Amino acid sequence: MSPMARTAPVPAATDPAIIRNFCIIAHIDHGKSTLADRMLQYTGVVQSRDMKAQYLDRMDIERERGITIKSQAVRMPWELDGVSYALNMIDTPGHVDFTYEVSRSLAACEGAVLLVDAAQGIEAQTLANLYLAMENDLTIIPVLNKIDLPAAQPEKYAAELASLIGGDPEDVLLVSGKTGVGVEALLDKIVRDLPAPVGDPDAPARAMIFDSVYDTYRGVVTYVRVVDGMLHPRERIQMMSTKASHELLEIGVSSPEPTPSKGLGVGEVGYLITGVKDVRQSKVGDTVTNLAKPAAESLSGYADPKPMVFSGLYPLDGTDYPVLRDALDKLKLNDAALIYEPETSAALGFGFRVGFLGLLHLEIVRERLEREFNLDLISTAPNVVYEVTLEDKNVVTVTNPSEFPSGKINEVREPMVAATILAPNEFVGAIMELCQGRRGVMRGMDYLSEDRVELRYWMPLAEIVFDFFDLLKSKTRGYASLDWKADGEQVADLVKVDILLQGEQVDAFSAITHKDKAYAYGVMMTGKLRELIPRQQFEVPIQAAIGSRIIARESIRAIRKDVLAKCYGGDITRKRKLLEKQKEGKKRMKMVGRVEVPQEAFIAALTTDESKDKAKK
Amino acid sequence: MPSVLPLGDPAPSDGLLPPQALDGAADRAFGLYVHIPFCAVRCGYCDFNTYTATELGGGASQDAYASTAISEVEFAAGVLEQSGLPARKLRTVFFGGGTPTLLPAEDLARILRAATDQWGIEPGAEVTTEANPDSVTPESLQLLADAGFTRVSFGMQSAVPHVLKVLDRTHTPSRVPLVVQWARDAGLDVSLDLIYGTPGESLEDWRFSLETALSYSPDHISAYALIVEDGTKLAAQIRRGEVPGIDDDDHAAKYELADQMISDAGLHWYEVSNWSATADQACRHNLAYWRGDDWWGIGPGAHSHVGGVRWWNVKHPTAYAGRLASGVSPAAGRETLDAETRGVERIMLEARLASGLAVSSLSASGKHAVAGLIADGLVAPADAFRGRLVLTLKGRLLADAVVRRILPD
Ligand SMILES: Nc1nc2c(ncn2[C@@H]2O[C@H](COP(=O)(O)OP(=O)(O)OP(=O)(O)O)[C@@H](O)[C@H]2O)c(=O)[nH]1
Ligand SMILES: C[S@@+](CC[C@H](N)C(=O)[O-])C[C@H]1O[C@@H](n2cnc3c(N)ncnc32)[C@H](O)[C@@H]1O
Ligand code: SF4
Ligand SMILES: [Mg+2]
């Protein structure tokens, strides 16, 4: 077993031969962040007394939900056979919504620790992340984690892992991030097995930006992996895509606290500070070079993540609109995946249509807006993006159901995904039934082992992104795991269902659904609204309609009494205060035509099981 | 008086009124309310400021109460004079409760005498007492009439035994015609209070109560929808599921029936919950509340109003008596209304009256709302054409909603 390094290699003066860059990838909750904790501890970069669980999960929301949302890179020293090495470790998120974070991290590494929970075995995101790592030509170190668990089955899953990536089950390391067993051996193996980075130290500098974070005190902090050459403090650097140049105010490594250095050389991972205030000026995927001696060709970047799900976000209090706008601008600084544009809703007022990577992303953004910016928000039912071809061949992209064109439609295309489901074979029947009910087309089925099956489906994104995972979990007693990625589009029989209150369309409640599901949506929504909207001074019909065709109908009976008819012996003050309270209440009502709809009703109607808090997927 | 007092500003210990209270005082009627905070038992639905103990300490016992109340009458007269209000005779006096008739009639007569000694009383003034049917005798009623009372309002509530039982009322229905007759014999006008919408009361029960009440040919009827007040025994019973809850639609149907039957019997509505045989027999004291006249409220928890200044006394009889004994104003809090708030109150109060309110007094947005109210059948078109906003039957049932619609935004 190796001792803690006595002397750590100094950044900017580190021979690439003693650098190892790796990330930890796994299915959600398989213990990446906990393993990272042990590494921080054993390499001595975090003292035991300062240690806390999931040390690198720094955002409140990460700590509360116990999940990683942002990748974190840390430089750690490690000694093997008398040589001090510099390890750059990147802990990555496991949730499918944040797969793009994983891809970015992979590009900064030569190797990946593929972690598998020894009590769970291979899961869908294990496969997805492994696939990404192989695509990036990374050396894989297979590791079974949580071997301290009584339910751990190391032999079984070691065999599964070995057959998946090739190799001998004996080569699969057994560790416990919790107790620390096997972690030092893993660090040794990382040094031994992973290739050192290669690059030309004399070439013009080229560094890949793999993350860019806004910090209130330091401005934008840009995380880079140097491929060729060297970056020094105080020199001028250039962003190769925009040609914008900035002075390097500070350069350093995270260990895990930011530590300034004399520069970063070939193979090193660290951060840059230029005083830039907007992350868009320091774009993830861009290449940083030296202004005085620029590189001829940039490194190949990565595609911006594409939003999959859209939802309208509206402040409960209309006067908070500017606050919401500023808040989104701020969040955007740290979240390149967040896109938004202003929209107005007759029912909800001024707000934004916001694109997200998935529902967890939506939940997290919403929660951060509410918490960090003290906003009360209504979010409309999330939807996917549709491409509508009109009869005149014009194509309209619909991110908001109320903008779905009426009449003269040639075809509607919806986004599709390739979904991979892993589950014990006893659930195959239930899963197939579920997927077929969701308009899925089976693409294949494989046995990973005797009792574990991988099912592959081609499915509409709209069918999978909302409540599918919950249903899948409940139908498989929690055993199934799911991964999906965007995979083309298909023409489908889609319609827009509108909800009308007293004949007035309520834009916030419009939904695009498959024709076969329109009726169910109409019945559900009209029924819900009947319960939620208080009685008015007149009868209020609630209708669901496709175009001009009514498919469901409910009605709210008129209120007949609204008067306090008791003699209060001259206590006029009490009566007036009551009236003032009612008047105040009326102000919090949204008017739909003549119908007063309390905001609570909007919120409740828009809160489906799908958009409710889900800590984890 | 409802038992929860409003939050307001502190009231000065000398009770003196700000100059604003003087404006136009000579043109406003002046009345007196006397609160008698005692009952034999507390009814399960009632949250008025009333106590069943006979021996509350510190000058608040039933025996000492008349003297304590008279000390406030004297204090009141001093405050009004020192504040510079013109001398005004009493136009209305109203003894309410609680159960005023739980005190000996002599005590009520003494208090009335003390008040008329202070202010004098207008010829033809209205002097009312509330009474429970089982707390009066022919003699006590005669004594009241002789002392100057003109009206008695009996808490009949219902003619149906199972309804009276849910309401915790102690009297038997057969007592009502007797007390009505005694009151008439004494020369008093008679009003009957009814409550509808009690849990378990059917529409037929209510019809029977109305028929019965009307068969006694009262000069005046008040019919109140039962309100389940927080903190009452009734509220707890409903919460625990021991009695069914109340239903607004049921209330509406019963109000419509009441209006129909009472009108058919020849009485006219003059306020949402009140009907009288002749215009003269409308309760002028209550009208003064709705019209924003001046009155002083005597007694614990009693509310007063003089020229846009409202105040209310401390709630507990002992605290009340203590204040008066040490020569300090018994007021617990008060508010001085600005012009805007007075406008809001005027609309809120006058809208409930058959005389209605002047459309010209509404804000621009309020005037604008009138057409919609006519269209919705809530406001009588003919009156509106003449410039008065008067509620229709449907409008009376939705009076609070109408008020919200005509108030300035
Ligand atoms: N018994 C045991 N529990 C572990 C071990 N490693 C992690 N855990 C627990 O597993 C849960 C998930 O651990 P994390 O380290 O947050 O997992 P993660 O892979 O980083 O999760 P995401 O970042 O959300 O993908 C936590 O409750 C840990 O305490 C282990 O070796 N043994
Ligand atoms: C305060 S009581 C005083 C009169 C007398 N103590 C009595 O009960 O008959 C005045 C009237 O208010 C009405 N009242 C009291 N509490 C009520 C409630 N919770 N809902 C509706 N009316 C109520 C009753 O009709 C009662 O007759
Ligand atoms: S008798 Fe009248 S005041 Fe007394 S408790 Fe009953 S309703 Fe209330
Ligand atoms: Mg994690």
What distinguishing features does this structure have?
heterodimer; A: 617 residues; alpha+beta; eight-stranded antiparallel β-sheet; six-stranded mixed β-sheet; 14 helices; 32% strand; disordered C terminus; B: 409 residues; alpha/beta; nine-stranded mixed β-sheet; 15 helices; binds guanosine-5'-triphosphate; binds S-adenosylmethionine; binds iron/sulfur cluster
Describe the structure.
With 617 residues, chain A is α+β, with helices and mostly antiparallel strands. Chain A is 25% helix and 32% strand. Chain A is built from 14 helices and 31 strands. In chain A, helix 7 (321-334) packs across helix 8 (359-372). Chain A starts with 18 loop residues before the first strand and ends in an 11-residue tail after the last helix. Mean pLDDT of chain A is 89; it is low at 609-617. Chain B has helices at residues 62-82, 105-119, 138-147, 161-166, 175-185, 203-215, 233-239, 248-264, 284-291, 317-325, 339-350, 364-375, 381-385, 393-397, 399-406; strands spanning 30-36, 90-97, 121-131, 151-157, 189-196, 220-225, 268-271, 274-276, 294-298, 303-306, 309-313, 331-336, 357-358, 388-389. The two termini of chain B are 31 Å apart. Chain B is 39% helix and 19% strand. Chain B is of the alpha/beta class and 409 residues long. The chains are: A alpha+beta (617), B alpha/beta (409). The A-B interface holds A 537-538, 559-577, 579-580, 582-583, 586 and B 1-2, 4, 6, 8, 33, 35, 48, 96, 222-225, 227, 248-249, 251-253, 255, 272-273, 286, 289, 295, 297, 302-305, 310, 312, 335, 341, 344-345, 348-349, 376, 378, 396-401, 403-404, 407. The structure holds guanosine-5'-triphosphate, S-adenosylmethionine, iron/sulfur cluster (SF4) and magnesium ion. Iron/sulfur cluster (SF4) binds at residues 39, 42-43, 46, 48, 50, 97-99, 132, 155 of chain B. Magnesium ion is lined by residues 32-33, 68, 91 of chain A.
